[in-house]
## 1
Amino acid sequence: MTTRRKFISDTILGGAAVAISGSAMAMPAKSYRRIIGSNERIHVAIAGLGRRVGAYYEPIALKEANVELVYLCDVMRSQRENALKNVSQFINYTPKAENDIRKVIDDKNVDALINATPDHWHTPGSIMAMKGGKHVYVEKPSSHNMEENELIVAAAKKYDKVVQMGNQQRSSNHTIEVMKDIHSGAIGKPYKAVAFYVNSRGPVPVQKKAPSS
């Protein structure tokens, strides 16, 4: 059986991310120029239409973003249908609905992939996209383990692609300001930090065996 590490490594070696939500429009000019000419539209696809997809609709619709949404991709039909319905409130055209990420990656018209798939697909999907000539914006966590982080970096260098991981909180204006104040000594020298997180999200459903195809 092929191991996860071998699958990802083979994906990188077989041939020889744009930020749309939160801080996506704050991409450095140098990186933006590497993606596409400033007078052309960036053609993007979103893979994974679950909990995070709603964060992309409004930024994609912004005129100054210069973005065209080409694909909405998910293996679940209900997710695709919901996404098409919801995004129609923000844009005046209809992106293609696709269930196979490989078809999206094979489309030469797609410049960048927003990888909002489940966590275990962040690294494999992102590397597949880079190998297919796409820049990548990948939701956090970017990897299943630390070694996979290195594989993503290696792929970005190998295929010369822009990749960004979605640490939106680190990119928010108020967080940047707070960090600047702390580094400037506003509270003296910090010795300890305590963080906690609460959420009303429901339990993760128990996995069920899917029918073979």
## 2
Amino acid sequence: MIRAYKFLMRPTVGQQVALGAMLRDHCSLYNGALQERRDAYRHASKTTVRYGQQSAQLKGIRAFDPERQGRWSFSSQQATLRRLDKAFATFFGRIKAGDKPGYPRFRGIGRFDTVDFPKDGDGCRWDATAHDAVTRVRLQGVGHVRVHQHRAVVGKVKTVSVKREGKRWYVVLTAEQTQPEPLPKTGSVVGIDMGIASFLTTSNGEHIANPRHGRKAAARLEAAQRTLARCKRGSKRRRKAVRKVVILHRKVRRQRLDHAHKTALGLVREHDVIAHEDLKIRNMSKAPAPKPDPGRPGSFRPNGAAAKTGLNRSIADAGWGVFLTILQAKAESAGRDVIAVDPRNTSRRCPECGHTVKENRPTQETFHCIGCGHRAHADTVGALNVLRAGLARREAQPA
């Protein structure tokens, strides 16, 4: 299995300058390759330029511009071109699927924050056994950069990436390791219902509160963003305002990740089987369609956009997608089963008699079956139905 590790780097002042130059030059390579593809399609009878053609040009580009392109790793530049190729592949995939295409865009230096090295030892070297007992990573054109390694890297390092977040620099490793020993069986199964009022509710009736980190930081973020909007572009004051916004967003993101990791770890340790709703979060957070007023051309009727905006903000703040990704990864390492089930009617179906109508849920929290009179918390009912559907799907799967 492949596991990722992320460590804070502690570069010197000179190394920070070199890292910034590396990002700028890779960004320039990305934008130049994108411009070549655009020009070839527009002016050369809709000719499509492929990754192989652009990769073959790298040798000439490095020889022509040794100061900016020739000093960096050849493999990392190929990875940058592959990133552009992947952007076009997903672009054409969206067209084929009938979604909004979103043509690949040029990247400003502020929006190009990662350089990938596809193989450890090719333009980079992870060195966890340095002679001075300090972990370092060697990067071509930068040197040996100190790394704050807060935990051991298990397995063979496969790829290395350098990432900038605000004023901080991180190294991200992927390591190939053997499948770890599964946790001892507990004999427990659970279903979880994701929500806004409670982050999740289990089929045992346990409610885990929604921390709402984004809402708690909203006032400070709004103030920081208003200050940023008033700053002149390119000024020193604007750079300071940008850093403040980045720091606030980083804190919210880290708080959200911390909560997701701890919640997922608790579930994986206590239960052998975890069933959850297969949520289509992107569809759930779409803006409502406009409602034209037939009586007044050019006018529109109220469509609940303001209320939907608040709901979308709450969905994003909860971080369901991040949590489910972390839960799946931890369960795989622990030998647990995670099952996604269809979420339709899970909070409307009575767990006692099976009667399913929307009137069974008169309020957000209340479930009252009009068929048999069963009463319970609506989220607990949803979690019970999710668990039953998950167990049924597990039994139906071939051995």
